[in-house]
Structures are given as structure tokens and as C-alpha cells.
Write a structure and sequence with these properties.
The complex is a heterodimer of chains A (about 500) and B (about 230). By secondary structure, chain A is α+β, with helices and mostly antiparallel strands. Helices cover about 60% and strands about 15% of the residues of chain A. In chain A, a hairpin with a 6-residue loop joins β11 and β12. Classes of the chains: A alpha+beta (about 500), B alpha/beta (about 230). The interface of A and B includes residues 360 and 381 of A.
């Protein structure tokens, strides 16, 4: 710090005393002027004014100084012999002593008031700072963001370098600092470690065990220890003013609570994720064992009975058994295909092979392949003429539409109508599939595209894999499209919209 | 060809599939020889001179695509590839390196037989047989350059006709985009968009309902097939 600023500080410290001197001089001059015109019985009372003024404005020491000045001025200007610091009348000595007593008591009282006011002011400032601080850290959800706000804010508020250290892999290390390039030396680290180990404020130049340029305070809540905060005051004294120490302590407990909140939220989220994974795993196991075993049971049953007793069945019975085995094998094939698609999606290995795809061609090709599933439905398709040609992966888009059609067939009654409409909507091409089923229950709307989710209808379990729509969504989304499901507004039934950008 | 029946070489490393193919083909009066590896396949090819090769792409000793290349070095025998679902890239690669068609595993007997027939017919056509195609209301005569839908003569532009001609020559077989570009435009690097546009126009003329084509079918990710 420049020497000039020491002079400045000294001047500032002496200012109250100078002020008391000036005020006393004015009062003395005023007293002389009054005494020339009117005879006052006790002119000494006006000298209470500088004492009070100093006490109220600058506290105890300034008012004691003012009291001393006042006594001297009173003696010098008003007590005979005038203009001398001696006192002729012994009664005047007594009066002077009383005056001094009054001035001292007044000083003490007024200075007390002054101190209280200053404390109140300081507390208000600290409270405002803390409020500001807590507001800033309240909404933060990321630990690193939170720590950054903490160090930046405290560094400004305390005029200090701030570091926060937290244990990582069993070792205390710097997590955040302001300024960000603040470097901790070995002494600092030793002090920080002690603060952490003994849960006590340590460090600073006067620390007998680990003297260091910074001091360190533990951050902890009643429940858990969080870390250590290190402070390097930039003030030349190397100390924090008392009010800043209060601020720091209060801030530390707020930081502790905020960090604990984050850690707990993180734990809760992990637990929720774990539960979700668990649910998915059990749904997957149920689905796989059910969807693999059921068709296999039919196939093995039908074939073994033909193999062993074929000659006992008449032709219609044999055909029936064979048809069962065949259709169940095809179902198994679809399921395995779905599992493979889902695995490819989960593995993130699908890269769309984009080409200009005529949506009419896409719709008719898909409908042709889906025909066996839709044979007892009335199928209609409307493709807007002059539809622009989006750039899609034909295979993925076809499979997505196929799965949506498959779903429509499963969840709508035989004989019902299934419509496919392709149209332009702004800068997108939409493919809409409508059915005449019961529509989608509100509870199902959210989970429709979840893996292994199957909408139950009463106690009847649908013969799907619970993967079709999840795959459709995955395939649409790798092509930067969207898929949405809703209930029809014109009648009962579901409506699926696949939308692709042009 | 030795004897009357068509001889098919089955190249497949899975014994159950070989057995299935042998039985199925036998029931359709095809004779079969079997190979479990690429090396066996090349030997069998020399010794038996089969009329068609049914080839599984996943062989233990040599990549299926490489084997197609080796076969094509010596013979133009029709090759039908057995491949897995969801592997369009491998199918296109196999077709472009000389395979005639593919069947996706698991396959139905109907589909397998249709593919074999189409592949064998093309071989006969090359020997100067049938130059006509008839399916439902559509009839094409490549010799007289006549295209008819029902009783109606249809006028096609030269490019449309060239595309249809390729489809008819290879009727029942899948044709890749690359094949059509090569044969019709004489240039594989032409923007496939042209092909798409001409196929659309062709469908407008020869299909009864162009929005639901019955003859010129799209094979997603691969190409077109005339049925």
C-alpha cells in the first residue's frame, strides 16, 4: 500500500478530535458573545454541547477529548483569572469538577448509544449481505456453480481471496477459488488439513502450530462435515474487521446448508434413478421371459405333437397345429427383432442413412408389409399431393411407421378403420395414424413410449412386446423427428403423429 | 447342367439351416450339394457346376462378400444371399458385388422359392428365352417394345422405358439403385433423386393405383423389385 494512504488513514482517524476542537472553539466563542450581552448564572452548561456532539457522532474517546477541551476552555475564558489556566475561587474548582463529572457521564451514555447505533448499522449491513448471499445460492443446482458463487461473492464482500477445499478421494483439495488462480502453498494446505481434522478455525500468521498467510474455517452442518474455507484478507493488517468475521461465520453455515441440500438432492435423484432402473429391469425380465417363452411353448408343443403323433391327427388338425407354430414363430421373430432394434438404439450405434424419401412411397411400402397385421381392419391412406420430399432413412422411417401401425392394430377393434395421413405442416412433414379404439388413458399418455410399457385393458394382457412404440420413438428421433400421441378429438380413438423436418 | 433337375449349392455353416434347405429344396425337386465353408464352396463349384448358389453371408473362413467376388471371377452362376434382418448395408454390398438377390433370415418357404425362381429365370433369359413379362393387368414385351395395362397401350418416355426394361429383365429380383443408375444412366454417380422421380412417373403410368403400387415395389434401403 502507498505511504500516502497511511497519511490519509491517520487524518481520517484524527478527524473526530479535530472536529471536537473546532466545535469547542465555536462554543467558547459563542459563550463569550452571549456573556457580553446577558448575565447567565451558569455559562458552563453550553460546554455540554461539544461533549454531546462528539459522543453522538464519534463515540467515547472523542467525547472524552471534547470534555477535556471543554473544561480547559471554560476555565480559560470564563473563570477568573480570565485567560489563564489557573482557578482563583475554590468554589469554581468544585464547579469545574462537577462539570467534568457531568461531561464524563454524558460522554459515556452518549457513546454507548453511538456504539449501539454502529452495531445496529453493522448488523443491518451484514444481514443485507447475508440475505443477498442466500438469495444467490438458493436456486443453484450444481455444486461447482454454487461454490463459484460462494467464493466470488465472499471475496468481494470481505475484500479477501477465498478458497473452498473439499475432501476428494479421502484427501482435502481445492474445489473453487476466487481469484481462480489463487495458489495454496504447503503451509496453507497444512493449516487447512488441521481445520478439517479438528473442526476448528486455524491458520493466520499468529497460529502457533501451522502459521500461514490464510486462515481456515471448517464448513459443517449439525449432520455432516462439508469442507474448509480459506480466507486471505487483502487488508494490509492481514485481518478481517469484526463485522466481516461475523459475516464469514454466518455465510459458512449458509454454505454448509446449501451444499448439504445439493448433496441430499443428488442422493435422492440417484435413488430415484436406481428405482427406475430396477423397475425397467424387472419389466424387461418379465417381458423377455414371457415373450420368449409363450411363443416357444406353442411352437414346441405343436411341433412335438406333430412329430410324435402326426399320423393320429386328421389334416385340418395338422394344419391348425402348423399354423399355430408358424404364427408364433413369426411373433417370436418380431420380438427378437424388437429386442435387437432396442439394443441398437440403446447402444447409440444407429446412424441414419439419409436419402430423399417420397412419403407416399414410404406409406405404401409400410402398409404392404403391415398388411398381415391389418387384414381384419379397414385401412385408408391419404397422402397430400405435391408433398415435399424429406431427407430420411427409409428403413428407420418405415420401421417406425410399421410399429405405430402394429400398435394401432393391437389397440383397436377388428373391423375398425385405421387411417394413415401424410401432410405438410409448416416446415415439416407429418405422418398421422388414427385408429378407432378406446383411445389412450390419461395415465398411459405419459408412459406410452417407455420401454416395456404396455397399456392394460382390464385384466387382459396385450400380446405386444412393450417395445414397439419405444423403438418408433427412438427411430423417429435419430432422424431428428418427433412423435406424439393423443386422443382423437372427433371420436374415440388414438392419434399418433410422426413429424419430420424438411 | 447335369441331369434334368436344377442343382443348387448350399453354402451355410449352420447344420440345422442346411438340413432345412436340403429338405425344402428336395421337396421342390431341386438337387442340392452342400458346403459349410468358403473353401468347400469353391471346390464344390468347380466339381459340380451348380445352377445356383444359395450363400450365407456369415461364413467362418471367408467374408461372404469376398466369396461372392471369388465366385464371380470364374462364373456368372446366379447367387442368392441369405442375410440377417436389419443389415441393409450388407445386402446392398452383396448385390453390388455380384449377388443376384437376397433372402432375409428367418425366411418362409414361399419367399425362398420365389427368389430362387426369379434368379433362375434370369439365367434362362440370358440364354435367349422369354423377353416378356405379364403380371395381372400389366404386360411388357421387350422384343416389340410394347407396354400394356389391361387393353390399353402405355406410352413411356425413353428413361421410363429403360427402367422398366431393367426391371423386366430381372423380374422378381431386387435391383439396387446403383444397378439401375449404371444400366439406365450408364453412370453410377448420378443423383439417385432422378431415379426416384422417374420411378414415380413410371408408377403413375403402369400402376392401376399409383399410391398403392402392385408391380414396382420399393425395397427399403436397397432398391426396387418388379413383381
Amino acid at each position: 500500500m502507498a505511504p500516502g494512504s497511511y497519511v490519509l488513514k491517520l487524518t481520517r482517524a484524527l478527524l473526530p478530535y479535530l472536529e471536537a476542537l473546532v466545535v469547542t472553539a465555536f462554543v467558547a466563542a459563542g459563550g463569550i458573545a452571549i456573556a457580553e450581552r446577558v448575565e447567565l448564572p451558569n455559562i458552563s452548561l453550553i460546554f455540554v454541547i461539544p461533549v454531546l456532539a462528539a459522543a453522538v457522532r464519534h463515540g467515547l474517546f472523542a467525547s472524552l477529548w471534547a470534555a477535556a477541551l471543554a473544561v480547559l476552555a471554560y476555565d480559560y475564558f470564563f473563570l477568573p483569572p480570565l485567560y489563564r489556566f489557573t482557578v482563583a475561587d475554590p468554589a469554581d474548582v468544585l464547579a469545574l469538577l462537577f462539570f467534568l463529572l457531568v461531561a464524563l457521564v454524558t460522554s459515556a451514555l452518549a457513546a454507548g448509544t453511538h456504539a449501539e447505533a454502529r452495531t445496529a448499522q453493522r448488523e443491518a449491513r451484514t444481514t443485507a449481505q447475508l440475505y443477498d448471499f442466500s438469495r444467490k445460492i438458493a436456486g443453484v443446482v450444481d455444486l461447482d456453480d454454487l461454490l463459484w458463487i460462494v467464493v466470488a461473492h465472499l471475496a468481494r464482500a470481505l475484500n479477501a481471496e477465498i478458497v473452498v477445499l473439499m475432501p476428494q478421494h479421502g484427501k482435502l483439495g481445492s474445489r473453487s477459488a476466487f481469484p481462480p488462480d489463487a495458489i495454496l502453498d504447503d503451509a496453507d494446505l497444512a493449516a487447512a488439513q488441521r481445520a478439517w481434522d479438528y473442526d476448528y478455525r486455524v491458520g493466520g500468521f499468529n497460529d502457533p502450530v501451522t502459521p500461514s498467510s490464510r486462515f481456515f474455517m471448517p464448513i459443517h452442518t449439525g449432520r455432516s462435515e462439508i469442507g474448509v474455507i480459506g480466507v486471505l484478507p487483502l487488508d494490509p493488517s492481514g485481518r478481517l474487521p469484526p463485522e466481516d468475521r461475523d459475516l464469514l461465520e454466518a455465510a459458512c453455515s449458509q454454505i454448509a446448508v446449501a451444499i448439504e441440500r445439493l448433496v441430499l438432492a443428488d442422493k435422492a435423484e440417484k435413488a430415484q434413478l436406481g428405482a427406475e432402473r430396477e423397475r425397467l429391469r424387472s419389466a424387461m425380465l418379465t417381458s423377455i421371459s414371457h415373450d420368449l417363452r409363450t411363443p416357444l411353448a406353442s411352437i414346441i408343443g405343436a411341433l412335438s405333437s406333430l412329430h410324435s403323433y402326426g399320423e393320429r391327427y386328421d389334416k385340418p388338425a395338422r394344419d391348425e397345429l402348423l399354423a399355430t407354430a408358424l404364427s408364433e414363430a413369426e411373433r417370436l421373430d418380431r420380438f427378437v427383432g424388437n429386442l435387437l432394434d432396442m439394443t441398437r438404439l440403446d447402444a447409440g450405434v444407429i446412424v441414419p442413412r439419409r436419402e430423399a424419401v417420397e412419403v407416399g412411397d414410404l406409406v405404401s411400402t409400410t402398409l404392404r408389409r403391415a398388411m398381415p397385421l391389418l387384414h381384419d381392419r379397414v385401412v385408408g391412406s391419404v397422402v397430400a399431393s405435391e408433398l415435399p420430399v424429406p431427407s430420411l432413412d427409409f428403413v428407420l422411417a418405415e420401421q417406425a411407421l410399421f410399429n405405430v401401425l402394429d400398435n394401432a392394430a393391437k389397440y383397436s377393434p377388428p373391423g375398425g378403420r385405421i387411417e394413415v395421413e401424410a401432410r405438410q405442416a409448416g416446415g415439416r412433414v407429418e405422418i398421422v395414424v388414427r385408429d378407432e379404439g378406446p383411445g389412450i388413458a390419461p395415465a398411459a399418455l405419459e408412459r406410452l413410449f417407455d420401454k416395456f410399457y404396455r397399456a392394460d385393458e382390464g385384466d387382459r394382457r396385450r400380446a405386444g412386446t412393450g417395445l414397439g412404440l419405444a423403438i418408433a420413438k427412438g427411430f423417429v428421433e435419430v432422424q431428428e423427428g418427433t412423435i406424439a400421441a393423443r386422443n382423437r378429438s372427433d371420436r374415440s380413438g388414438a392419434e399418433f403423429v410422426m413429424s419430420y423436418p424438411l | 447342367m447335369t441331369g434334368d433337375a436344377v442343382l443348387i449349392l448350399i453354402v451355410e455353416d449352420e447344420p440345422p439351416i442346411r438340413r432345412l434347405l436340403r429338405t425344402t429344396l428336395g421337396a421342390h425337386d431341386y438337387r442340392t450339394v452342400e458346403a459349410a465353408t468358403a473353401a468347400e464352396a469353391l471346390t464344390a463349384l468347380r466339381h459340380h457346376r451348380p445352377d445356383l448358389v444359395l450363400l450365407d453371408l456369415g461364413l467362418p473362413d471367408l467374408d461372404g462378400l469376398a466369396l461372392i467376388g471369388r465366385i464371380r471371377e470364374t462364373t456368372a452362376v446366379p447367387i442368392v444371399v441369405l442375410s440377417s434382418r436389419g443389415d441393409e448395408g450388407a445386402k446392398v454390398a452383396a448385390l453390388d458385388s455380384g449377388a443376384d438377390d437376397y433372402v432375409t433370415k428367418p425366411f418362409g418357404a414361399d419367399e425362398l422359392m420365389a427368389r430362387l425362381r426369379a434368379a433362375l429365370r434370369h439365367r434362362l433369359q440370358q440364354q435367349g428365352a422369354d423377353r416378356t413379362f405379364t403380371s395381372d393387368d400389366l404386360s411388357v414385351d421387350l422384343v416389340r417394345r410394347l407396354v400394356r395395362r389391361g387393353p390399353e397401350d402405355i406410352k413411356l418416355s425413353p428413361k421410363e422405358y429403360d427402367i422398366l426394361e431393367q426391371l423386366v429383365i430381372h423380374a422378381g429380383k431386387v435391383l439396387t439403385h446403383k444397378h439401375l443408375l449404371r444400366e439406365v444412366w450408364r453412370n453410377e454417380t448420378v443423383d439417385p433423386q432422378y431415379l426416384r422421380v422417374y420411378v414415380r412417373q413410371l408408377r403413375q403410368k403402369i400402376e392401376a393405383d399409383p399410391s398403392t403400387p402392385r408391380h414396382v415395389l420399393t425395397e427399403p434401403g436397397i432398391g426396387y423389385r418388379l413383381v
